[in-house]
Predict the 3D structure of the following.
Amino acid sequence: MSETILDIRGLVTAFNTRNGAIRAVDGISLSVRKGTTLGIVGESGSGKSMLSLSVMGLVPPPGRIAEGQVLYRGTDLTKLSAAQMRDLRGNRIAMIFQEPMTSLNPVHTVGFQIIEALRAHRKESPARLKEEAIEALRKVRIPSPERRFDEYPHQLSGGMRQRVMIAMALVCKPDLLIADEPTTALDVTIQAQILELLRELQAETGMAIILITHDLGVVAQVADEVAVMYAGKVVERAPVSRIFQDPQHPYTIGLMGSMPRMEEDVDRLVSISGVVPPPFRLPPGCRFNPRCPFVGSECRVEQPALAAMTDTHAVACWKAPLEEHV
Amino acid sequence: MTKPLLELEDIRKLYPVKKGLIIQKEVGTVRAVDGVSFQLMPGETLAVVGESGCGKSTTARLAMRLIEPTSGTIRYDGQDITKATRQDMRRLRRDMQIIFQDPYSSLNPRMTVEEIIAEPMVVHNVGDRASRRDRVRELLRLVDLAPYHADRYPHEFSGGQRQRIGIARALSVSPRLIVCDEPVSALDVSIQAQIVNLLKDLQKEFGLTYLFISHGLAVVKHVSDRVAVMYLGQIVEIADKKNLYDNPRHPYTQALLAAAPEPDPSRRTAMKSLGGDLPSPLNPPSGCRFHTRCPLAQERCRSEVPALREIEPGHRAACHFAESVPSFTRFRNGEGIHPRLQERLALYARHKAALASVNA
């Protein structure tokens, strides 16, 4: 078993609001090992983006990490000073975002921005920095990187911009990459290119990836392990093949059914009724219970804990294993 | 034989690109939509798919004459509406409504839901105040919202609920044709499925005709009868749903199908990506517009523009080699869904239905 790069333990990220304290991330434990990809699936409002910002130490105020640990190779990131965190961020832990146009500075060249990322962590000569930046562009398969180095973001297509973002993130050779919906804004043919690129780069560098997405198809293609989030909690966690063959949590099953498939012709999609509850109006008991077709009286009273079904498969549901209870 | 409800014939929309502040010179033309023709039969759903910038949304707006075509003919119910006057168009638009992609920007935040839904009826002088009120309540029920929602404002609703309001507004004047411009693209997965199901139910109930614009081939497979694939302002392939998915004849259609991530971790190598980026519509490639990215491109493709021609009845493709393009069979029915998942989905659906009947 390879080394654990990131180990999140009982993480709670809270916001104090007029409606009381909101826990956007509510007691999450997850880990990811070297060379593997953890896919985090959830819809908007599930807390998946707040989870990644918590790991990066970028929780926007008035939010704060209220409980728990984020262990990066044994070091608790929640205990680090701002300066220590800056040393790690972009260097050992990197992040790419959904929208490549808003994450790149339009008034600087691509090359300048990559060097900027590099210079924050390395003391080297300008010539050497430029070499490394061009090498980073070449790594993400950008054709004629020497020419692209001097171009501005608006001169690049969406797919190229996302490649530049990846080059910037990987230029310091991090061992953890957090990719927050990296392909959502891209067209499907470009998405396929980017996913393939991430897979290849992982094979080359052995970095661990946390991939945040709402698209189960993307997860099926790149993740090794999957965590399904709902309303701030992980409701199911398993290796990717288990999730697609033997989903146990009703929410996971509902998501699978909601996804239109090309290899199938069904008259109606198995949709989930209702909507995700806002964080200040969470139902008592299991948070999914108002939408769950298998709901029982116990579900409305007490919240189920994430419990192991097998060594690798954990579910937070009173009805698991499903066939035995319904 | 039934007459088409909507017919586009060689429709073009060109945008001049100008340079200079005072003395403007035309320096080029963006060929947003470049010779698109199709027929839409009453009661069917024609989906138009393509990547961003292919002109699919422009086509949708041209079909309703929300923007004026540069050339070509639009016929609605057998009548040429390309030159129809504003007054005539206004009357016609009672018959054709549109649902937009973004449920946040397409509803006026200062109007109540009742005012929003009733607005088309006011514009078209349908009924009086009291009857419109009743109609709004009825429409809310139709789209699975509650009558008390009528007095609320859009900001009080989630994205999916707003899209339902948009659908109710489109239905208010009992149109025959609804243009759906990416109606589910901005929604969460679980909500997408709800809206897709709702659109299909409404079509069945009212015999609606849909022109469905989308970039997602999977969604399209669920809602459409026929599919047109667009690339750089042109239709490259159009066919019945079954033919298009089982036997795509244009390399671009095949590439789109191949690029969609498959929800099956056991078949990862299957995902093949198309190289390169979409060329600029300002300066489209010569010959076949797809030749710069086509894995099968030959000399002839660079020089000669392929016509959109019939390959088999009801199946047209714009490729010189449409007959000899290797067949593409990625999606066989049933493959890719594990039997256990299949069972569990069925179990979910059964329990959901049972619960719904208890609640009703």
Notes: Chain B has two domains: 1-18+26-95+175-360, 108-167.
